[in-house]
Write a structure and sequence with these properties.
four-stranded antiparallel sheet; alpha+beta; single chain; 11 strands; about 210 residues; Glutaredoxin
Amino acid sequence: MALRLGDEAPNFQAETSEGKIDFHQYLGNGWGILFSHPKDYTPVCTTELGYVSKIKPEFEKRNVKVIALSVDPVDSHKGWISDINETQNTTVNYPIIADADKKVSNLYDMIHPNASETTTVRSVFVIGPDKKVKLTLTYPASTGRNFDELLRVIDSLQLTSNFSVATPANWKDGEDTIIVPSVSDEDAKKKFPKGFRTIKPYLRYTPQPNK
């Protein structure tokens, strides 16, 4: 069954390129991002895994653990990592789950038979400290993911989990946010000391609260 927003991210134990893990223990009390790959030695995935290793400090700044998955075994992962490091001029610095029996792929509904009966699609799951799924994205196998966009989404998710705000279209960290409709103007005056401007009763902007 498909995982929906707000569902608990299923726990699992698996072998990875960095040893055996328990997924929930690996995430600890922070955030997590799990992203899948159709198989090892694929060109688009090679660029993705390389890019993520380069921006891993950005995930760490946000208290986000990164973990990838591919349906090939650990030995294959290790050979592929060597290629990624060489071709992308980086060092892969996070685990890649070996999911040869497709246990995790099926648990997270990563195989879409009408796209391919055997390989995982490019799924992304952002998981909160409560182990609940906060975001899901599914890309076709041919399209590389935009990890800068995923960082932006995580910024928004973390902001809105702490304050009564939402983020408008194309919002970036540091820009004005939207006060959620459930907060009255009276409460908004107390909650948002920087003030707010009302465009419509349901559309009120306030400076980003944690800046």
